[in-house]
Specification:
Layout (H helix, E strand, L loop, with lengths): L17 H5 L30 E3 H5 L4 H14 L2 E5 L5 H15 L3 H4 L11 E3 L14 E8 L17 H27 L3 H9 L2 E9 L11 E4 L5 E6 L6 E5 L2 E4 L7 E5 L1 H6 L9 E3 L7 E9 L26 H12 L8 H4 L3
Parallel strand pairs: 1-2
Antiparallel strand pairs: 2-10, 3-4, 4-5, 5-12, 6-11, 7-10, 7-12, 8-9, 8-11
Helix pairs in contact: 3-6, 4-6, 6-7
């Protein structure tokens, strides 16, 4: 069995830096970034559509645990995404990583290119999953790094001298994200009636990939997209916004709902792995990133995966005569390779989750 660190994650064709494009006077947005909005879902105007907010302190408090656990269940079932407050992640760890993210994208093009993606790898600075020269591009620069396990790190892509102490900040941040992910997974297991210790342990020994995003301002924000609509393949995904500029949107009831950043919160969304484990009780939501015309927006996304021995299948405790298994059973390797093989193909319109169904 290959370890998660050695799996082939595909590659991406080099493309121009969006931040450099945006820094020039633009008479028009380059054609490859323009999107046809026909047939797209509308952005929600209904203020009652607000992403659930959960409090980790209440989940840990025996007095409020059951009530907050029910809120967690409802959030994962009805939204697939929520904002988490009251968590135990060190505030300085998050702020430090936010500063280093902004400092990295503010470096000169020449310095950032030292960490550019190489042929056959998604890791490094660039864009993800660009497979053809005529493919539509996203209005976003990113640097993608495998952070945990430590032996999986490719330090040639980790900025060393500039920004100062970037590596130390990311090391601390990624371990904090692993700790909170393990706790969240445990509570998700409880909400489903599963063994919390077993599932948490799988994620304690899992892999954690970190993607830092820069969304430069755009003169025509309604005609581009920061990150295209997608569902994450992780177990869960954790996002922190570097500021108070909204950009993340989730698809709910046929409308795109903006997630307004809450200070010191973590956005948690269900990934496809947990949709399979829950046998479809919880859904991995479609989400995307919008851009604005005035300011850079930065975010840090941590993709949380179980260890390589974890079998991706519906939990046996959720299968009975009235609830048959909706998804196939796959090894971790089979699951990851199946997804990344699909990224090498033109979009066939079939969601990845549908290819996993029985």
């Amino acid at each position: 069995m290959a370890s998660p660190a050695t799996l082939n994650l595909g590659s991406s064709i080099p493309v121009p830096s969006v931040k450099e494009i945006a820094s020039q006077p633009l008479l028009a947005v380059p054609h490859r970034y323009l999107r046809d909005a026909d047939g797209d879902y509308p952005t929600a105007g209904d203020s009652s559509l607000q992403v659930p907010v959960l409090d980790m302190a209440r989940l840990l408090d025996p007095q409020f645990h059951e009530f907050e656990l029910q809120k967690l269940h409802d959030a994962c079932k009805n939204w697939g995404i929520f904002q988490l407050t009251g968590h135990e992640v060190c505030d300085e760890s998050v702020k430090s990583m936010h500063r280093k993210t902004e400092e990295f994208f503010d470096l000169s093009p020449e310095v950032k290119k030292l960490y550019a993606q190489k042929s056959g790898s998604l890791e490094g600075y660039g864009q993800a999953f660009v497979i053809s020269e005529d493919q539509k591009l996203e209005w976003c620069d990113m640097i993608f790094l495998k952070a945990i396990p430590v032996h999986a790190r490719k330090l040639e892509f980790w900025p060393e001298q500039q920004p100062h102490q970037f590596r130390e900040a990311l090391h601390a941040y990624s371990h904090d994200m692993r700790k909170i992910a393990s706790s969240i997974i445990g509570f998700i297991a409880m909400a489903l009636g599963l063994d919390a210790k077993t599932l948490s342990k799988a994620f304690e020994g899992g892999s954690y990939d970190v993607r830092m995003n820069c969304y430069p301002p755009c003169p025509e924000p309604e005609r581009v997209i920061g990150i295209s609509s997608h569902a994450d393949i992780s177990g869960i995904t954790l996002l922190t916004d570097c500021g108070d500029i909204p950009g993340l949107q989730v698809l709910k009831d046929g409308q795109w709902v903006f997630i307004e950043p809450i200070t010191n919160s973590i956005v948690v969304n269900v990934g496809i792995i947990m949709e399979v484990v829950s046998n479809g009780i919880y859904k991995a939501p479609y989400h995307r990133a919008a851009v604005n015309r005035k300011k850079d927006r930065f975010s840090i996304v941590t993709f949380c995966y179980p260890d390589g021995k974890f079998e991706i299948k519906p939990s046996e405790q959720l299968i009975n005569s009235e609830s048959v298994a909706l998804y196939k059973s796959l090894t971790y390797d089979e699951y990851m390779q199946s997804f990344y093989e699909r990224t090498k193909l033109s979009d066939d319109g079939i969601p990845f989750i549908d290819t996993l169904k029985v």
